[in-house]
Amino acid sequence: MEQAQIPIGMLLQKAVKIRAHILEMVAEAKSGHPGGSLSAVEMLVSLFFHKMRYDPKRPNWPDRDRFVLSKGHAAPVLFATLAEAGFIPVSELKTLRKLNSRLQGHPDQKVPGVEFPGGSLGIGLSAAIGMALAGKIDKRNYRVYALLGDGELDEGETWEAAMSAPKFKLDNLTAIVDRNGIQQDGLTEQIMPKEPVGYKWKAFNWHVLEVDGFDFRQIIDALDKAENMRNRPTVIIAHTVKGKGVSFMEWDPAYHGKIPDKDTVRRLVETMREK
Question: How far apart are CA 269 and CA 266, in angstroms?
Answer without folding.
Answer: 5
